[in-house]
């Protein structure tokens, strides 16, 4: 039974425009799970039920790599509370002190410049995985315009009440884990990736351990 | 912030609480800080400093930042990473806090402080707290108040001598759900009947040692200056006997404090076993199981407690009070909180109507309110909306909820209570004397583990 369900599950998350024979599991390396401090109870509308199993492999075209590693990052908050903006793409996903960047309160964004437009398969984001928490108003957009004024495509949006004024989102809120959040980019082409958030269930602040953008040039 | 989901019963508690506090506050002279510049809400701002800007210090900072009329003037940490973190965090919220490496410098350089929050490792709680008290500041110190009884006693004495407030961070004492459980469910309604046993735990899964960014490592001389052997011990001080009281202090202290608080007495004996059975580099045991005996006026209560740091089995953390007519499973996590009625106990419907408890599935607003012209509804009057299980036909216990929620960070109400007390509006929910009794209760476990036998307490042990 499981053998029958698994291929079906995999097919469901394959980018629609791609044929199955070209697809291979995304070369995704996960950090070790962490747990620090007292868990904080929270009540969040539209919260996705936490999965009790590992995420199934995400299939992407052969040759897909993390295009974001080491790429320049800009941010709405240019003076982080702790850490460096470059941590977002430095390849260190450990999640402990010295591996995350913390930005100020309210809606904040980080933006990755991939250097050139590329066909994107998936974006994986680790906000902060040392503690179970939920980030608010998570919005992921891509564009070829560095100002994000034209050609903006939204890949993920869980801002259900349009707090960020970027449109009402239909995606669920989710609890951060060491698996990160994998967002299907559906093969869209773009040079810039911008991620928004507006605080979390533990504090008003915004964090990033790592963002990986998988695609092919 | 007002809890929009809180029922009248909570309001009642708050009114009572404030009323008592105001009556007491009337006798207190207006402190110098009250004369300072008025803040946005119309009351004088309190000037506060934080000593210890690590993980717990930042938790307290984030909670305190939600409280109006608190002005952070200084932060102190021996590690520049932590110090910068706190300084910049506060700057984001408009607080220009001066950074200090040495707490002595802070206390002498920032004269207008009203209060100091201490969130340093346990072995320096007494040093930092006593210095702040003697400098004329009120102190909120994280639990466990100290890793030795002697140090804990010195803190009570310093507070007494200086006539300054000392609140210890057993934050459950200010949690409205815990207050409701104790005051309404246990004491007023006595829904558990005679409490006979307690079962409690805090289980955590295996975790790796805390590391540090190499470029931020403290020089050896700086570590030695402040009493740390090396960077590993500085970052993982909880595993070492020199700096901490062990897992029973790190985690158990919160819940064992609830034993004393809910039962209203201190224990008469303790037996415990534990060992460093998994982690090879921990000086303290990594698991401990303990049984206390509490001689309550209603009879003996035997209370089991365990901390396991290698498994999160059993839902993590909870305190389970068991009595002849019901049980109360409490946790800081509302999802783990539940009341159970024994089949032999009287029906609890009247307590639903009075807002003490809530039927499962009832919305958060609490018990359905009676309109002024309505009579009390009979127990079995209207047909139930959901099917009712007949307790005569099943051994399963009926489960109930508590109608009180907390929509703030879990440490916020305890900090609010501290600041309200400074302003003469309240009384401390966890004054040094109460926390001392809890520290004695907790630290005796370590003696019992070493002795491998039952140890007894004398009533005078709990008095500082």
Topology:
The complex is a heterodimer of chains A (217) and B (464).
Chain A: H1 2-12, E1 23-25, E2 59-61, E3 65-66, E4 73-75, E5 101-103, E6 108-126, E7 139-143, E8 153-157, E9 181-184, E10 189-197, E11 206-208, E12 210-216
Chain B: H1 8-25, E1 46-51, H2 55-64, E2 70-76, H3 80-92, E3 98-100, H4 103-109, E4 115-118, H5 125-134, E5 138-141, H6 149-162, E6 166-168, H7 176-188, E7 195-203, H8 220-225, H9 231-235, H10 247-263, E8 269-275, E9 287-296, E10 299-308, E11 317-323, E12 326-330, E13 338-341, H11 349-353, E14 398-400, H12 412-422, H13 432-451, E15 455-456
Parallel strand pairs in B: 1-2, 1-4, 2-3, 4-5, 5-6, 7-10
Antiparallel strand pairs in B: 7-11, 8-9, 8-15, 9-10, 11-12, 12-13, 13-14
Helix pairs in contact in B: 5-6, 6-13, 10-13
Mean pLDDT of chain B: 86
Amount of beta strand of chain A = 25-35%
Task: Look at the structure and give the mean pLDDT of chain A.
Answer: 89
Order of helices and strands of chain A: HEEEEEEEEEEEE
CATH superfamily of chain A: Galactose-binding domain-like
Oligomerization category of the chains in this entry: heterodimer
> Looking at the structure, what is the overall shape of chain A?
globular
Largest interface, C-beta closer than 8 angstroms, per-chain residues? A-B, 26 and 30 residues
Name the poorly predicted regions of chain B.
Answer: 1-39, 364-394
CATH class of chain A: Mainly Beta
């Amino acid at each position: 039974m499981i053998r029958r369900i698994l291929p079906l599950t995999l097919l469901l998350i394959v980018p629609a425009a791609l044929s199955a024979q070209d697809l291979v599991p995304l070369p995704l390396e996960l950090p070790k799970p962490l747990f620090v401090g007292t868990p904080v109870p929270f009540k969040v509308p539209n919260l996705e039920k936490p999965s009790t199993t590992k995420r199934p492999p995400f299939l992407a075209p052969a040759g897909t790599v993390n295009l974001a590693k080491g790429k320049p990052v800009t941010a709405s908050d240019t003076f982080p509370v702790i850490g460096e903006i470059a941590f977002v793409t430095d390849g260190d996903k450990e999640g402990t002190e010295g591996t995350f960047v913390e930005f100020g309160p309210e809606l904040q964004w980080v933006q990755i410049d991939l250097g050139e437009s590329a066909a994107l398969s998936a974006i994986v984001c680790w906000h902060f995985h040392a503690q179970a928490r939920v980030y608010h108003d998570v919005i992921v957009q891509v564009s070829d315009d560095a100002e994000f004024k034209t050609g903006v495509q939204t890949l993920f949006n869980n801002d259900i009440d349009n707090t960020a004024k970027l449109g009402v989102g239909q995606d669920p809120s989710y609890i951060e884990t060491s698996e990160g959040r994998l967002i299907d980019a559906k093969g869209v082409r773009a040079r810039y990736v911008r991620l928004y958030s507006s605080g979390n269930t533990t504090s008003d602040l915004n964090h990033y351990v790592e963002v990986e953008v998988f695609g092919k040039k | 912030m007002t809890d929009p989901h809180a029922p009248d019963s909570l309001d009642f508690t708050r009114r009572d609480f404030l009323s008592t506090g105001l009556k007491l506050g009337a006798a207190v002279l207006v402190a110098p800080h009250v004369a300072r510049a008025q803040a946005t809400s119309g009351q004088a701002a309190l000037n506060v400093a934080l000593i210890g800007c690590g993980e717990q210090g930042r938790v307290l900072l984030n909670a305190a930042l939600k409280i109006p009329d608190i002005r952070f003037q200084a932060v102190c940490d021996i590690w520049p990473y932590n110090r910068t973190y706190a300084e910049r965090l506060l700057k984001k919220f408009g607080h220009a806090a001066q950074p200090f490496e040495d707490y002595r410098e802070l206390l002498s350089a920032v004269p207008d402080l009203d209060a100091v929050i201490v969130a340093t490792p346990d072995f320096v709680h007494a040093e930092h707290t006593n210095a702040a008290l003697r400098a004329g500041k009120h102190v909120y110190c994280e639990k466990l108040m100290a890793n030795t009884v002697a140090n804990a006693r010195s803190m009570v004495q310093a507070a007494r001598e200086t006539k300054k407030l000392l609140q210890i961070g057993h934050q459950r004492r200010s949690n409205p759900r815990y207050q409701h459980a104790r005051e309404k469910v246990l004491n007023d309604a006595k829904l558990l009947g005679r409490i006979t046993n307690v079962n409690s735990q805090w289980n955590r899964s295996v975790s790796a040692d805390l590391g540090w960014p190499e470029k931020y490592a403290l020089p050896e001389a700086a570590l030695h200056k402040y009493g740390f052997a090396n960077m590993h011990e500085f970052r993982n001080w909880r595993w070492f006997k020199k700096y901490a009281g062990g897992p029973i202090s790190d985690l158990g202290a919160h819940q064992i404090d609830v034993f004393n608080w809910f039962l209203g007495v201190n224990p008469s004996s303790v037996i415990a076993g534990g060992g460093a059975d998994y982690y090879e580099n921990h000086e303290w045991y990594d698991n401990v199981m303990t049984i206390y005996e509490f001689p309550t006026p209603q009879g003996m209560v035997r209370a089991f407690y365990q901390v396991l740091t290698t498994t999160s089995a059993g839902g993590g953390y909870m305190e389970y009070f068991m009595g002849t007519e019901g049980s109360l499973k409490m946790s800081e996590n509302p999802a783990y909180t539940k009341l159970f009625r024994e089949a032999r106990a009287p029906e609890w419907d009247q307590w639903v109507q009075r807002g003490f408890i809530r039927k499962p599935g009832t919305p958060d607003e609490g018990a359905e309110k009676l309109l002024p012209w309505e009579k009390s509804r009979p127990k079995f009057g209207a047909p139930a909306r959901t099917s009712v299980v007949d307790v005569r036909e099943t051994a399963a216990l009926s489960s109930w909820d508590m109608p009180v929620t907390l929509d703030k960070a879990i440490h916020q109400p305890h900090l609010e209570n501290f600041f309200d007390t400074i302003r003469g509006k309240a009384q401390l929910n966890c004054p040094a004397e109460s926390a001392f009794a809890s520290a004695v209760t907790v630290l005796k476990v370590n003696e019992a583990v070493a002795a491998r036998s039952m140890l007894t307490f004398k009533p005078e042990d709990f008095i500082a």
